[in-house]
Amino acid sequence: QSYCHRLQHDMYFLTSTSRLNEQVVDKIVLQLNRVYPQILTNEEAEKFRNPKASLHTRLSDLLKHLQKKGDRHCQEFYRALQINAEQLFNDLPSRKILKTSDPTEIDTDKEQYMLNDRGPVFFLACFSVAAGLALLWYCCNSETQVIGRARRILGFSPIIIGRHVRNICMLYLEDIPRN
């Protein structure tokens, strides 16, 4: 979307009462007058800073003038608005559309809630069940010679599995060849 279309979309929002005050409009006009390349000539800047005209009229005329000049001038207006009234710049309707127009963007607050609603105990319980089923499937598979490898793994794992649990698993592994 071009800056001229964005400015046309934001025009009502910017010209509504008490959005921009006299000082901010004067700063924006001065910045547009002093920026390189010069967006507003000295005569145009004086016209848009004329205190005899109402703020609404001056701002409306300024925005229409910038739209006639082209996209580069509108872009410089947005830059001046961002520098001099950042909160208002962030609240612009066109900015909100740009922020929400990316379909791949993830709403981090919602995603954080979805990932953290169970807690660590649920994760540990699921992991323990999965590890237990994998160990049981690995040890009970009759096609492979698992006994020697399982005995080596369980024999060297007192840190991972408690001694009591390890002894029960070793007894189970010793009983398998007898059956």
**CATH architecture annotation name of the domain at 3-100:** Orthogonal Bundle
* C-alpha-based Rg, rounded: 35 Å
Structural class: mainly alpha
- Number of beta-strand segments: 0
The low-confidence runs, each spanning 5 or more residues with pLDDT under 50, are 106-115
CATH structural fold name of the domain at 3-100? Death Domain, Fas
Task: Give the distance, in angstroms, between the N- and C-terminal Cα atoms.
Answer: 76 Å
The average pLDDT score comes to 77
Net shape? rod-shaped
| Helix run count | 11
The SSE order reads HHHHHHHHHHH
Task: Outline the structure in words.
The chain is mostly helical and 179 residues long. The protein has a domain at 3-100: Death Domain, Fas (Orthogonal Bundle). Helices cover 73% and strands 0% of the residues. It is built from eleven helices and no strands. The chain has helices spanning 3-15, 22-34, 42-48, 55-69, 71-84, 86-90, 93-100, 108-116, 120-140, 147-155, 163-178. Helix 4 (55-69) packs across helix 5 (71-84) and helix 10 packs antiparallel against helix 11. It is rod-shaped, with a radius of gyration of 35 Å. It starts with a helix and ends with a helix. The model is unreliable at 106-115 (pLDDT under 50).
